[in-house]
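Explain this protein:
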Amino acid sequence: MAIAWIYLIIAGLFEAVWAVGLKYAEGFTKLWPSLVTIVAMAISLYFLALAIKTLPLGTAYAVWTGIGAFSTAILGIVLFSEPIHFSRIFFLILLLVSIIGLKFTAVS
């Protein structure tokens, strides 16, 4: 089951890659960012599919989207100078706590 969690983390991180890739692809009008985005989507879904062979679907999906959302928000701050303020950090921390909580309460 530990490998399924590793697969899920990889899937979530690649979700962030393709989300950021969408920004750089500018509506799929730029070739290389578009290709990176599409490949990252495929990798993310592949690892999610591997993870849900073992993990409960609801937990795996929630963790996958949570990792992607958290990572994408952080990358938005770092790469695109998106606003950073107390409430945003507070809710990102809550999201991280929720992801960790789901991991520790998951049963299969």
Summary: The chain has a mean pLDDT of 95. The chain has one domain: 2-105.
